[in-house]
Design a protein that fits this description.
The chain is an alpha/beta fold and 375 residues long. The chain contains 13 helices and 14 strands. The longest helix has 22 residues.
Length: 375
């Protein structure tokens, strides 16, 4: 329908960068440097500076980036890696693919970030800690670093591009991010990156992601193919220049939702943890009753709401061998049945947000929505 409101408006973002991207594509096509090359090197420098780290190493996607970070640490095979139960499955997949064992723990009930108290109980026997900076804000990294007691902390920063905690864009030894199209900084396909201040870790990541070869046909260690292609780097460079403004627009849209939803029964708005600068990758509200019926009503009205994530990692069939059952992590499990992500992107208008909330209120059965949300 013509008045549909998408969860993420990729077309509007493309319209802003189209001329710059097409000019960059022409450069790459003329040069023939399709994999790695000067465009990728330039993006790596620019994104490292943006995040505030010494090194950014491009990868083929965000899942690979997490696996590369874990492999570069040379952790004991089969060692446990503590991670939140409420995350996209790629977090646990990367651990498994790196020859390690996912150790999910519950999340805090207010922000749904990994719960330090649960981490402390799970750490004996673990070899690393993998917090997820969920929905656009940091997990409590400084607390986790203290709890880790020397174990490496690998940050899953796929949803926190531009976020800060206590003024910093990275805290652990190494972090990984995804440039999937729907991210705050998204490409026109898959791409990812590893971020670190550690020269040796950066070199190891680059080596492993290029078949373990520093020189052609000389393979120093077992690796695989995970390199960023130059066309994605062109897109990411163009979007990176706009990311601070786009993140600011996301925060402004989230603030409008906060006002529009204030006092709406049955809806809990997402908050920001102290010390965080949130980049509002998503705007997930919690619906106390009937989440799926509300979601269907929004979809029926042409509103692209979503659910992040309907099944926690420990209840995914693929991870059944870990031995967890329903009830193991009640906070994450309850959130899985309540969370509903409303449309949020830098080009969302106030009129669109008013309509989203009007439909949401009708779906909840509150009545009188148009008068309330326009107050």
């Amino acid at each position: 329908m013509s008045d549909a409101i998408p969860l993420v408006d990729l077309a509007a973002a493309h319209a802003e960068v189209e001329a710059e991207v097409l000019a960059g594509f022409d450069r790459v096509l003329a040069s023939g440097a399709f994999v790695k090359g000067p465009e990728v090197a330039a993006f790596e420098r620019e994104y490292a500076a943006f995040t505030g780290v010494r090194h950014c190493v491009g990868a083929a996607n965000g899942t690979d980036a997490l696996e590369l970070a874990l492999r570069a640490l040379d952790l004991p095979p089969g060692g446990g890696v503590v991670l939140p139960a409420n995350t996209f499955v790629a977090t646990a997949e990367a651990v498994q693919r790196a020859g390690l064992r996912p150790v999910p723990v519950d999340v805090d009930p207010e922000h749904l970030l990994i719960d330090p108290e649960r981490v402390a109980a799970a750490l004996p026997g673990a070899v690393a800690l993998l917090p997820v900076h969920l929905f656009g804000q940091f997990a409590p990294v400084e607390v986790l670093l203290e709890l880790a007691d020397g174990r490496p902390v690998v940050e899953d920063a796929a949803q926190s591009q531009g976020a800060r905690r206590h003024g910093r864009g990275a805290h652990g030894r190494i972090a990984a991010t995804s440039f999937y199209p729907g991210k705050n900084l998204g490409g026109y396909g898959d791409a990812g990156a590893v971020l670190t201040d550690d020269d040796e870790l950066a070199a190891a990541v680059r080596l492993i992601g290029d078949h373990g070869a520093r020189d052609k046909y000389r393979h120093e260690r077992f690796g695989f193919n995970s390199r960023m292609d130059a066309l994605q780097a062109v897109v990411l460079r163009a979007k990176l220049r706009r990311l601070p403004d786009w993140n600011a627009a996301r925060r402004a849209a989230a603030a409008r939702y906060d006002r529009l939803l204030d006092g709406l029964p049955g809806v809990t708005r997402p908050g920001t943890a102290p010390g965080n600068v949130h980049v509002r990758h998503l705007y997930p509200v919690r619906i106390a009753r009937g989440r799926d019926a509300v979601l269907a009503a929004l979809h029926g009205a042409g509103i692209g709401a979503g659910v992040h994530y309907p099944v926690p990692v420990h209840l995914q069939p693929a991870f059944r061998p870990l031995g967890y059952r329903a009830g193991a992590f009640p906070v994450a499990e309850r959130a899985a049945g309540e969370l509903l992500s409303l449309p949020l992107h830098p080009h969302l208008t106030e009129a669109q947000q008013v309509r989203v909330v009007e439909v949401l209120e009708r779906a909840l059965g509150a009545g009188g929505s148009s008068g309330r949300v326009n107050q």
